[in-house]
Write a structure and sequence with these properties.
Length: about 300
């Protein structure tokens, strides 16, 4: 697994070289830029230029998480994990879908200066249910963003969220019906650990080699807390076994809840510890995720 950290852990701060240095010190080989204007202002060409210099001068790759809040209104003081996203690529209102597409494309323009390997997309909010309409809107959104991202050298990845639209089964249906053969999946292990999402082993068994990236965080199985790995109920043996069964090692991105009081040094120590734990040996590295799930079901 290639080590990565999302800048989401520093969401209340303006992203700068010192914070990037701290993530690399923790062992990150890649950094996921969390696109929120108060944190990483992708519309400020001067700011993007400064960050691009850092990436050029350091042996570190870059990926991006799409904006999920309207950058024109969101600020560090307003941001909260408990506030619903305002950007929805499959919104029922066409004007809102268009606005969402435009904001994601603004963020993707960063790839003109920073070599962004991939962008992670959200399809829907927790309230969006699975239907023929959301299937059609999802395929349209993916095709639209993919067409914009591809010339910039950025791959398109779809994240498993806590909603019906992006459950592992439905994601595979979207990719299959849409013939989206070059689109990958970001398996968010925290999201699939929530009580009604089927669990980690089942997600690996369904998504298999579509998994190109992992979002790594923990929770109590009821709330999307984005805790450090090992602080909740995620089955990390199942995560390691799932990774071992993939043909290509995925990018493993720590996506931890922002802590306003955390220092760069403390974050770096916690992230290094998490990577060491995550890279421990699985109980049965050769096991197939589907077999692991079946074994659990028979207990």
């Amino acid at each position: 697994m290639k080590r990565s950290i999302s800048s989401h852990v520093f969401l209340h701060q303006r992203l700068h070289a010192g914070l990037l240095d701290a993530m690399v010190s923790a062992g990150a080989q890649s950094i996921e830029l969390f696109a929120a204007r108060h944190h990483f202002d992708y519309t400020d060409r001067g700011e993007v230029k400064e960050l691009s210099k850092w990436f050029r001068n350091n042996n570190c790759a870059a990926t991006m998480h799409q904006p999920i809040f309207d950058g024109r209104t969101a600020s560090a003081s307003q941001w909260s994990r408990h506030v619903a996203p305002t950007i929805n690529l499959i919104d029922v209102e066409k004007t809102r879908r268009i606005d969402a597409m435009d904001e994601v494309k603004r963020a993707l323009e960063t790839a003109e200066q920073i070599d962004v390997d991939s962008i992670v997309l959200h399809l829907g909010t927790p309230n969006d249910s699975w239907s023929e309409r959301t299937l059609d809107l999802s395929m349209t959104a993916i095709e639209h963003i993919k067409a914009f991202a591809h010339p910039l050298g950025a791959k398109t990845l779809i994240e498993t969220l806590h909603n019906e639209v992006t459950s592992p089964d439905h994601l595979m249906e979207i990719l299959r019906i849409g013939h989206l053969d070059t689109v990958g999946v970001t398996l968010d292990v925290g999201h699939v650990n929530l009580h009604d999402m089927g669990g980690v082993a089942a997600a690996f068994a369904t998504l298999r080699d579509r998994v190109k990236q992992l979002h790594l965080h923990d929770n109590d199985g009821e709330h999307d807390q984005h805790l450090w790995p090992g602080e909740g109920t995620v089955d990390w043996d199942a995560v390691r076994t799932g990774i071992a069964a993939l043909k290509q090692p995925p990018l493993g991105t720590l996506e931890i809840a922002f802590e306003p009081e955390i220092s760069a040094k403390e974050m770096s120590a916690k992230a290094a510890k998490a990577f060491t734990m995550l890279e421990g040996s699985a109980k049965n590295p050769a096991a197939d995720p589907a077999e692991l799930q079946n074994a659990k079901a028979t207990k």
